[in-house]
Design brief:
By secondary structure, this protein is mainly alpha-helical. Helices cover 26% and strands 4% of the residues. It contains 7 helices and 2 strands; from the N terminus they run H-H-H-E-E-H-H-H-H. A hairpin with an 8-residue loop joins strand 1 (106-109) and strand 2 (118-121). It is globular and about 55 Å long. The structure holds heme C (3 copies). One heme C binds next to helix 3, strand 2, helix 4, helix 5 and helix 7.
Length: 190
Protein backbone atom coordinates (compact mmCIF):
# COMPACT_ATOMS: atom_id res chain seq x y z
CA UNK A 1 0.00 0.00 0.00
CA UNK A 2 3.09 2.23 -0.17
CA UNK A 3 1.90 3.83 -3.41
CA UNK A 4 -1.30 5.08 -1.84
CA UNK A 5 0.02 8.52 -1.03
CA UNK A 6 -1.88 11.53 0.25
CA UNK A 7 -2.62 12.78 -3.23
CA UNK A 8 -4.29 9.62 -4.49
CA UNK A 9 -6.46 9.47 -1.39
CA UNK A 10 -7.31 13.12 -1.94
CA UNK A 11 -8.13 12.48 -5.59
CA UNK A 12 -10.36 9.53 -4.69
CA UNK A 13 -12.18 11.67 -2.16
CA UNK A 14 -12.69 14.51 -4.63
CA UNK A 15 -13.89 12.00 -7.26
CA UNK A 16 -16.47 10.59 -4.85
CA UNK A 17 -17.49 14.08 -3.80
CA UNK A 18 -17.84 15.19 -7.41
CA UNK A 19 -19.95 12.14 -8.29
CA UNK A 20 -22.18 12.83 -5.29
CA UNK A 21 -22.62 16.49 -6.19
CA UNK A 22 -23.07 15.75 -9.89
CA UNK A 23 -25.52 12.93 -9.12
CA UNK A 24 -27.78 15.06 -6.95
CA UNK A 25 -27.70 18.27 -8.95
CA UNK A 26 -27.70 16.85 -12.48
CA UNK A 27 -30.58 14.48 -11.72
CA UNK A 28 -32.88 17.51 -11.46
CA UNK A 29 -31.96 18.93 -14.88
CA UNK A 30 -33.39 17.94 -18.26
CA UNK A 31 -31.03 15.92 -20.50
CA UNK A 32 -28.71 18.09 -22.56
CA UNK A 33 -27.63 16.57 -25.89
CA UNK A 34 -23.90 15.80 -26.34
CA UNK A 35 -21.90 18.26 -28.50
CA UNK A 36 -22.65 18.14 -32.23
CA UNK A 37 -25.61 15.73 -31.87
CA UNK A 38 -27.56 15.48 -35.17
CA UNK A 39 -30.59 17.82 -35.10
CA UNK A 40 -33.04 14.92 -35.50
CA UNK A 41 -31.72 13.35 -32.26
CA UNK A 42 -31.20 16.45 -30.10
CA UNK A 43 -34.60 16.32 -28.38
CA UNK A 44 -35.34 19.90 -29.53
CA UNK A 45 -36.11 19.53 -33.25
CA UNK A 46 -39.05 17.39 -34.44
CA UNK A 47 -37.51 14.46 -36.38
CA UNK A 48 -40.86 13.82 -38.13
CA UNK A 49 -40.99 17.35 -39.58
CA UNK A 50 -39.94 17.29 -43.26
CA UNK A 51 -38.04 20.58 -42.74
CA UNK A 52 -35.45 18.69 -40.67
CA UNK A 53 -33.60 17.68 -43.87
CA UNK A 54 -33.26 21.32 -45.00
CA UNK A 55 -31.31 22.27 -41.88
CA UNK A 56 -27.55 21.80 -41.74
CA UNK A 57 -26.35 19.42 -39.01
CA UNK A 58 -23.87 20.93 -36.50
CA UNK A 59 -21.26 18.29 -37.31
CA UNK A 60 -21.16 19.79 -40.84
CA UNK A 61 -21.70 23.49 -40.10
CA UNK A 62 -19.12 23.47 -37.32
CA UNK A 63 -16.55 21.18 -38.95
CA UNK A 64 -13.98 23.99 -39.29
CA UNK A 65 -14.34 25.16 -35.69
CA UNK A 66 -11.67 24.36 -33.07
CA UNK A 67 -13.00 21.83 -30.49
CA UNK A 68 -12.14 20.89 -26.91
CA UNK A 69 -11.34 17.35 -25.72
CA UNK A 70 -15.08 16.49 -25.53
CA UNK A 71 -15.72 17.68 -29.06
CA UNK A 72 -17.42 20.89 -27.94
CA UNK A 73 -16.75 24.00 -30.01
CA UNK A 74 -14.04 26.24 -28.48
CA UNK A 75 -15.90 29.51 -29.00
CA UNK A 76 -13.21 31.75 -27.52
CA UNK A 77 -10.55 30.24 -29.80
CA UNK A 78 -12.95 30.51 -32.76
CA UNK A 79 -13.35 34.22 -32.00
CA UNK A 80 -9.60 34.78 -31.50
CA UNK A 81 -8.80 33.02 -34.78
CA UNK A 82 -11.44 34.97 -36.69
CA UNK A 83 -13.47 31.83 -37.55
CA UNK A 84 -16.47 33.82 -36.33
CA UNK A 85 -16.99 37.60 -36.24
CA UNK A 86 -20.11 38.23 -34.17
CA UNK A 87 -22.01 41.52 -34.54
CA UNK A 88 -21.58 44.05 -31.75
CA UNK A 89 -25.31 44.83 -31.65
CA UNK A 90 -28.45 43.01 -32.85
CA UNK A 91 -28.59 45.38 -35.82
CA UNK A 92 -24.91 45.18 -36.81
CA UNK A 93 -21.70 46.90 -35.69
CA UNK A 94 -23.63 49.96 -34.55
CA UNK A 95 -26.89 50.02 -32.67
CA UNK A 96 -28.67 50.61 -29.43
CA UNK A 97 -27.72 49.02 -26.14
CA UNK A 98 -24.78 48.77 -23.79
CA UNK A 99 -21.43 49.09 -25.59
CA UNK A 100 -19.03 46.16 -24.98
CA UNK A 101 -15.91 47.19 -23.10
CA UNK A 102 -13.03 44.70 -23.11
CA UNK A 103 -11.37 44.14 -19.75
CA UNK A 104 -8.12 42.14 -19.53
CA UNK A 105 -8.26 41.05 -15.89
CA UNK A 106 -7.83 37.47 -14.64
CA UNK A 107 -9.25 36.54 -11.24
CA UNK A 108 -7.81 33.43 -9.57
CA UNK A 109 -10.38 31.71 -7.35
CA UNK A 110 -8.65 29.58 -4.75
CA UNK A 111 -11.45 27.90 -2.75
CA UNK A 112 -11.08 24.71 -4.77
CA UNK A 113 -9.93 22.15 -2.15
CA UNK A 114 -7.49 19.83 -3.98
CA UNK A 115 -8.69 20.77 -7.44
CA UNK A 116 -6.43 23.17 -9.36
CA UNK A 117 -7.39 26.81 -8.77
CA UNK A 118 -9.89 28.46 -11.13
CA UNK A 119 -8.76 31.19 -13.53
CA UNK A 120 -11.67 33.46 -14.45
CA UNK A 121 -10.64 35.47 -17.54
CA UNK A 122 -12.51 38.78 -17.94
CA UNK A 123 -11.15 39.21 -21.48
CA UNK A 124 -12.67 35.98 -22.86
CA UNK A 125 -16.03 37.05 -21.39
CA UNK A 126 -16.09 40.79 -22.14
CA UNK A 127 -15.48 40.23 -25.85
CA UNK A 128 -19.16 39.24 -26.06
CA UNK A 129 -20.76 40.05 -22.72
CA UNK A 130 -21.42 43.45 -21.13
CA UNK A 131 -20.32 44.11 -17.54
CA UNK A 132 -24.01 44.28 -16.60
CA UNK A 133 -24.56 40.67 -17.72
CA UNK A 134 -22.69 39.66 -14.54
CA UNK A 135 -22.35 42.73 -12.31
CA UNK A 136 -23.84 42.87 -9.88
CA UNK A 137 -26.78 40.46 -10.18
CA UNK A 138 -24.64 37.31 -10.53
CA UNK A 139 -21.31 38.46 -9.04
CA UNK A 140 -20.39 41.45 -6.84
CA UNK A 141 -17.39 43.07 -8.59
CA UNK A 142 -14.96 42.36 -5.78
CA UNK A 143 -12.47 39.47 -5.66
CA UNK A 144 -13.48 36.91 -3.03
CA UNK A 145 -16.82 38.60 -2.26
CA UNK A 146 -19.04 35.85 -3.71
CA UNK A 147 -19.88 32.58 -1.93
CA UNK A 148 -19.27 30.44 -5.05
CA UNK A 149 -19.12 26.65 -4.70
CA UNK A 150 -19.18 23.74 -7.11
CA UNK A 151 -22.51 22.52 -5.76
CA UNK A 152 -24.11 25.92 -6.45
CA UNK A 153 -22.58 25.99 -9.93
CA UNK A 154 -24.00 22.52 -10.65
CA UNK A 155 -27.39 23.82 -9.49
CA UNK A 156 -27.19 26.68 -12.00
CA UNK A 157 -25.93 29.54 -9.83
CA UNK A 158 -22.86 31.78 -10.42
CA UNK A 159 -20.79 30.33 -13.34
CA UNK A 160 -23.61 27.78 -13.80
CA UNK A 161 -25.98 30.55 -14.95
CA UNK A 162 -24.28 30.21 -18.36
CA UNK A 163 -21.91 27.23 -18.25
CA UNK A 164 -23.55 23.89 -19.09
CA UNK A 165 -26.18 25.95 -20.98
CA UNK A 166 -24.92 28.49 -23.55
CA UNK A 167 -21.24 28.02 -22.72
CA UNK A 168 -19.07 24.93 -22.33
CA UNK A 169 -20.22 22.04 -20.13
CA UNK A 170 -19.08 21.46 -16.57
CA UNK A 171 -17.55 18.08 -17.48
CA UNK A 172 -14.51 19.90 -18.87
CA UNK A 173 -13.20 20.59 -15.34
CA UNK A 174 -9.75 21.60 -16.62
CA UNK A 175 -11.08 24.53 -18.64
CA UNK A 176 -11.94 26.34 -15.36
CA UNK A 177 -9.65 24.51 -12.90
CA UNK A 178 -6.61 25.42 -14.97
CA UNK A 179 -4.10 26.60 -12.35
CA UNK A 180 -2.40 23.65 -10.56
CA UNK A 181 -1.04 24.27 -7.05
CA UNK A 182 1.32 22.19 -4.87
CA UNK A 183 -1.58 20.26 -3.26
CA UNK A 184 -3.49 19.42 -6.47
CA UNK A 185 -3.22 15.88 -7.89
CA UNK A 186 -2.76 15.20 -11.63
CA UNK A 187 -6.02 15.52 -13.63
CA UNK A 188 -7.93 12.37 -12.57
CA UNK A 189 -11.22 13.33 -14.25
CA UNK A 190 -10.14 13.05 -17.90
C1 LIG B 1 -17.34 26.86 -15.33
C2 LIG B 1 -16.17 26.72 -14.48
C3 LIG B 1 -15.99 25.43 -13.67
C4 LIG B 1 -16.00 24.14 -14.14
C5 LIG B 1 -16.18 23.65 -15.57
C6 LIG B 1 -15.75 23.29 -12.99
N1 LIG B 1 -15.59 24.06 -11.86
FE1 LIG B 1 -15.24 23.38 -9.95
N2 LIG B 1 -15.27 25.30 -9.24
C7 LIG B 1 -15.44 26.42 -10.02
C8 LIG B 1 -15.44 27.61 -9.15
C9 LIG B 1 -15.58 29.04 -9.61
C10 LIG B 1 -15.27 27.13 -7.83
C11 LIG B 1 -15.24 27.98 -6.54
C12 LIG B 1 -13.89 28.63 -6.37
C13 LIG B 1 -13.86 29.69 -5.29
O1 LIG B 1 -14.93 30.12 -4.82
O2 LIG B 1 -12.74 30.12 -4.92
C14 LIG B 1 -15.16 25.67 -7.92
C15 LIG B 1 -14.95 24.83 -6.82
C16 LIG B 1 -14.75 23.46 -6.90
C17 LIG B 1 -14.41 22.60 -5.76
C18 LIG B 1 -14.19 23.04 -4.32
C19 LIG B 1 -15.26 22.58 -3.39
C20 LIG B 1 -16.61 23.22 -3.65
O3 LIG B 1 -17.63 22.53 -3.50
O4 LIG B 1 -16.70 24.36 -4.06
C21 LIG B 1 -14.31 21.32 -6.26
C22 LIG B 1 -13.97 20.03 -5.48
C23 LIG B 1 -14.59 21.38 -7.69
N3 LIG B 1 -14.85 22.70 -8.04
C24 LIG B 1 -14.58 20.29 -8.54
C25 LIG B 1 -14.87 20.34 -9.90
C26 LIG B 1 -14.93 19.17 -10.76
C27 LIG B 1 -14.65 17.75 -10.31
C28 LIG B 1 -15.24 19.63 -12.03
C29 LIG B 1 -15.47 18.82 -13.30
C30 LIG B 1 -16.43 17.70 -13.18
C31 LIG B 1 -15.39 21.08 -11.96
N4 LIG B 1 -15.16 21.46 -10.65
C32 LIG B 1 -15.69 21.89 -13.03
C33 LIG B 1 -15.60 26.47 -11.39
C34 LIG B 1 -15.72 25.37 -12.24
C1 LIG C 1 -19.08 36.57 -17.11
C2 LIG C 1 -19.21 37.37 -15.92
C3 LIG C 1 -18.47 38.68 -15.78
C4 LIG C 1 -18.45 39.76 -16.64
C5 LIG C 1 -19.16 39.89 -17.99
C6 LIG C 1 -17.66 40.77 -16.02
N1 LIG C 1 -17.20 40.32 -14.81
FE1 LIG C 1 -16.10 41.40 -13.44
N2 LIG C 1 -15.97 39.73 -12.23
C7 LIG C 1 -16.55 38.51 -12.49
C8 LIG C 1 -16.13 37.57 -11.46
C9 LIG C 1 -16.51 36.10 -11.40
C10 LIG C 1 -15.30 38.28 -10.56
C11 LIG C 1 -14.63 37.72 -9.29
C12 LIG C 1 -15.59 37.68 -8.14
C13 LIG C 1 -15.06 36.93 -6.94
O1 LIG C 1 -13.84 36.73 -6.80
O2 LIG C 1 -15.88 36.54 -6.08
C14 LIG C 1 -15.23 39.66 -11.07
C15 LIG C 1 -14.55 40.69 -10.44
C16 LIG C 1 -14.49 42.00 -10.91
C17 LIG C 1 -13.83 43.10 -10.21
C18 LIG C 1 -13.09 43.01 -8.89
C19 LIG C 1 -11.61 42.86 -9.08
C20 LIG C 1 -10.87 42.79 -7.77
O3 LIG C 1 -9.63 42.59 -7.82
O4 LIG C 1 -11.47 42.90 -6.69
C21 LIG C 1 -14.02 44.22 -10.98
C22 LIG C 1 -13.51 45.62 -10.69
C23 LIG C 1 -14.78 43.82 -12.16
N3 LIG C 1 -15.05 42.47 -12.07
C24 LIG C 1 -15.14 44.67 -13.18
C25 LIG C 1 -15.77 44.29 -14.36
C26 LIG C 1 -16.01 45.19 -15.49
C27 LIG C 1 -15.62 46.67 -15.54
C28 LIG C 1 -16.61 44.43 -16.46
C29 LIG C 1 -17.01 44.85 -17.87
C30 LIG C 1 -15.92 45.42 -18.68
C31 LIG C 1 -16.78 43.07 -15.91
N4 LIG C 1 -16.23 43.03 -14.65
C32 LIG C 1 -17.40 42.02 -16.58
C33 LIG C 1 -17.40 38.21 -13.54
C34 LIG C 1 -17.66 39.04 -14.63
C1 LIG D 1 -23.15 35.52 -18.21
C2 LIG D 1 -22.68 34.22 -18.67
C3 LIG D 1 -21.41 33.62 -18.08
C4 LIG D 1 -21.06 33.48 -16.75
C5 LIG D 1 -21.87 33.87 -15.52
C6 LIG D 1 -19.76 32.83 -16.74
N1 LIG D 1 -19.34 32.58 -18.02
FE1 LIG D 1 -17.56 31.73 -18.58
N2 LIG D 1 -18.08 31.93 -20.55
C7 LIG D 1 -19.28 32.45 -21.01
C8 LIG D 1 -19.29 32.44 -22.46
C9 LIG D 1 -20.44 32.89 -23.36
C10 LIG D 1 -18.05 31.91 -22.87
C11 LIG D 1 -17.59 31.66 -24.30
C12 LIG D 1 -18.28 30.42 -24.86
C13 LIG D 1 -17.60 29.13 -24.49
O1 LIG D 1 -16.37 29.10 -24.38
O2 LIG D 1 -18.33 28.11 -24.36
C14 LIG D 1 -17.30 31.61 -21.63
C15 LIG D 1 -16.02 31.09 -21.61
C16 LIG D 1 -15.31 30.80 -20.45
C17 LIG D 1 -13.96 30.28 -20.41
C18 LIG D 1 -13.13 29.89 -21.63
C19 LIG D 1 -11.98 30.79 -21.91
C20 LIG D 1 -11.18 30.26 -23.09
O3 LIG D 1 -10.11 30.84 -23.30
O4 LIG D 1 -11.59 29.30 -23.78
C21 LIG D 1 -13.63 30.08 -19.09
C22 LIG D 1 -12.33 29.55 -18.53
C23 LIG D 1 -14.77 30.49 -18.30
N3 LIG D 1 -15.77 30.92 -19.15
C24 LIG D 1 -14.85 30.42 -16.92
C25 LIG D 1 -15.91 30.91 -16.15
C26 LIG D 1 -15.95 30.87 -14.68
C27 LIG D 1 -14.88 30.26 -13.80
C28 LIG D 1 -17.12 31.47 -14.31
C29 LIG D 1 -17.62 31.74 -12.90
C30 LIG D 1 -16.68 32.38 -11.98
C31 LIG D 1 -17.81 31.87 -15.54
N4 LIG D 1 -17.05 31.51 -16.62
C32 LIG D 1 -19.05 32.53 -15.58
C33 LIG D 1 -20.32 32.92 -20.25
C34 LIG D 1 -20.32 33.02 -18.86
Amino acid sequence: MKNLNKNSIGAAFIALFAMFVAGTALAEKPEIAAPLTPLAEDGIHDPANPAITTLQDPVESMSAFPKDRRGEVQWVESLNKGVITPRKFLTGDTGEGEELKELDLDIILKNTAQMPHVRFPHLAHTRWLACSNCHSEIFLPKAGANPISMEKILKGEFCGRCHDKVSFALWACERCHSVPHPGSPPAWWK
